[in-house]
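DM between two lab members

TW: hey, do you still have the Amino acid transporter entry open?
JB: yeah, one sec
JB: this one, 457 aa:
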Amino acid sequence: MGRLSGNLGVAEIIFMVIAAAAPLTVISGNVPLAITQGNGALAWTGFVAAAMVLLLFSVGFVAMTAYMTEAGAFFTYIRAGLGARCGRAGAFLALLTYTSIQLGVYGFFGWSMDDAVRQWGGPALPWWLYAAGVLVAVAVMGYRHIDLSSRVLGVALVLEIGVVVVMNAAIMWHPMPVAPMADAGQAAGPFAVALLFAITGFIGFEATAIFRDEARDPQHTIPRATYGAVIIIGLFYAISCWCVIHAWGADSITGITRGFLAHGQNIVLETAGRYAGRVMQQAMQVLLLTSLFACLLSFHNIIARYQLALGRDGIMPAFLARTHDRHASPHVASVVQTGTACVLLCIAALSGEDPLVDIFGSMAGISTIGIVVLMILTSVAVVAFFARRRDLSRGRPFSAVVIPCVAAVALCAVLCVILVNFTRITGLAARTSLMLAVLPFAVTGLGFCVGRTAITD
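TW: and the structure you got?
JB:
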């Protein structure tokens, strides 16, 4: 069966994780929604709060990392702390979570590419043609060695972060008459909704542990990459959201953003054009596409490695655990993942639904519930793991027990907020939203109840 290999350091893994979070995609998509449906000019506080919750979670996650010898992230942690059946349930849920958000991003890419081509004077083509094209590119990259993917993602990430930094700097350089804090009493909606869109923007951050086999020094690299990814992502999102609000003025940001959305325009691209010039706006539009590609490639790598880990443990067919002799990549799992994405993309195309509002919105809703449930299970698993091994937790009760308990409670509160506001997130009818909200729990139950496997239950 072979193991993966690589020489990824802290910076490379952070690149992979932040690329999966797709910062430019989040800033262009989640930020406007957080402003209009969330708490208006204070929407940036949702990203700060999300980062704080994830930092709490990361304390226990990192504490347990030192005693984990396999890649697999949430699923292996849950299994080690709560047993094989709970681990299998977590694995099924993780596959659903990442497969859902990947399908949503394929829809987002198709929509964005079609919009860009039409703006550049090209023909209006079906969104799924562009999605199918990028699927082929992702398949080729995902089949090869992980170092190639990390270099491609690193270049794309530097460019997209750079263009946002230029926009932020241009906004800060121009003094504005109204600061975002002045609009504190005119929030457009609940803080909870802004928090929801912020949490969605962090999906993929735990991928630091998935690349354990390919890390240069897992014992030190994984913890540093985890904290680094959460802090960098949180600060980048919060500052960028604040700058967009600052650019248009706190008193009017909510109405202006709603107006742009109503006319199918991207307020972030318009902000870049207003403060950094037309060339920068066009560059940001191109980099939005590369951001989406980087996101898709990262999710492809994550899903393939989940499948490899499940193949190793007998939860899924053993052939998924095979690795390529030359590329040292999970080539079989990569091909299977490509096939799955192709089938789902065909179903989405035949459904006739809007690729952005319907497909991306609903898939983001499923994945948000999934990632929060996974983090709750992982926090509980950390506590259970150290409770059975008191010799390991001696001298550090806070990182091994107290903080993971606090994180679990905080995440349960976030989950309640998500479920209460789920219809607002997806934008779908109440009955359809309910069915989508139940799906992650149903898949988790299925994973727990399936028959015995090679793992001892």
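TW: got it. The two ends are 23 Å apart (CA to CA). DSSP finds 19 helices and no strands in the chain.
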